[in-house]
Amino acid sequence: MGDRVEIFEMGPRDGLQNEKREIPVAEKIALVDCLSRAGFRRIEVASFVSPKWVPQMAGSGEVLAGITRADGVSYAALTPNMRGYQDAVAAQADEIAVFASASEGFSKANINATIAESIARFVPILEAAREIGLPVRGYVSCVTDCPFDGPTPPGRVAEVAGRLLDLGCYEVSLGDTVGQGTPESITAMLGAALDRVPAAKLAGHYHDTAGRALINIDASLELGVRVFDAAVGGLGGCPYAPGAAGNVATEAVVNHLTEQGYETGLDMAVLDEAAQMARMMRTG
Ligand code: HMG
Ligand code: MG
Questions:
Q1: Most buried residue among 18, 78, 110, 174 by CB atoms closer than 10 A?
Q2: Superkingdom of the source (predicted)?
């Protein structure tokens, strides 16, 4: 049996949060329901952020209420603050994610807080989640490059990732938000992050702006990372990171990993169906 790699599907959240067209909740639900048949263990479907900041995610509660939940699939939601946490719990998200940045410029642009302020906001969220046994994932954005501050020192990534782990995040996903990382910068960044967080608790979250996400995944595999975030059809980007393209396409990652003998447990025919749906949603 080949080595197992897990893909955390991001399309319904990281993908759709950046679409220009207002996508009806029913279309989002249809996409999630299709993805639920593909074999993912985790799908990010919702984001309880301010609708003034990201109007595309306003229907997140309805999405969680309307999907057909498949056994063994964890449906995840982003939560920037206590208000988002409460909404995610009310909507019965199976897990939540807090999101920080390794660069101050992006932190301010994305969540209107310094890195330290954002971490302070996460403390009560993690405490509340621990009390009810709700798993919390952590994100660190701009792990190699920031659109406002330039290159990110690897030590900053290690610091923020380590802090999220210490607070109780079960996994830390490292975001190349603007897709400018190279195998060299990803390797240097991971080298530092691994001093604070074991490989088994790290994930790679690479946007494909420069077409290097797959080789950056290869560099991460070399260092023992076995979880990657991806979005069907390469959907998305981040509204607060100018020029950011979508996450690397799930189907491209699956093909790339399969060629190298890794197993993902995903059904390619269902993924193709979902990717086609995603492309239709994009052109609307
Ligand atoms: P703020 O303006 O500093 O905060 O925003 P505020 O407390 O003054 O709230 C502003 C308004 O939003 C208020 O409404 C609040 O009630 C409301 P008003 O009084 O003006 O009518 N509000 C909320 N509404 C619904 N749900 C909430 C909520 N919180 C406040 N949870 C805030 C601070 C964090 C809220 C804002 O900056 C925000 O929502 N940012 C989210 C930005 C975002 O979603 N970015 C994309 C996701 S991150 C990403 O894509 C990166 C990632 O993929 C990894 C990578 O690629 O690197 C994860
Ligand atoms: Mg992202």
A1: 174
A2: Bacteria
Provide CB contacts within 8 A for 184, sequence distance 6+.
Answer: none
Instruction: Give the end-to-end CA distance of the chain in Å, rounded to a whole number.
Output: 41
* Cα–Cα distance, 49 to 176 (Å, whole number): 21
Residues 172, 139: contact at Cβ < 8 Å? yes
> How many other C-beta atoms are found inside a 10 Å radius of the C-beta of residue 229?
27
Which atom of ligand 1 is closest in space to residue 54's alpha carbon?
44
Residue count of the chain:
284
Give tens-digit pLDDT for 67-115: 999 999 999 999 999 999 999 999 999 999 999 999 999 999 999 999 9
Where do the domains of the chain lie?
A: 6-283
- Token reading at 245: 């393209």
Of 142, 146, 169, 238, catalytic: 238
Q: What 8-state DSSP symbol labels residue 70?
A: P
> Angle 250-259/268-283 helices, nearest 10 degrees?
150
Atom of ligand 1 at shortest range from CA of 140: 57
Do the Cβ atoms of 277 and 30 come closer than 8 Å? yes
Nearest to 42 by CA among 7, 88, 91: 7
ipTM: 0.98
**Closest ligand relative to 143 C-alpha:** 1
3-class secondary structure, 144: coil
Active site residue 169: no
92: left (phi over 0), alpha (psi -120 to 50) or beta: left
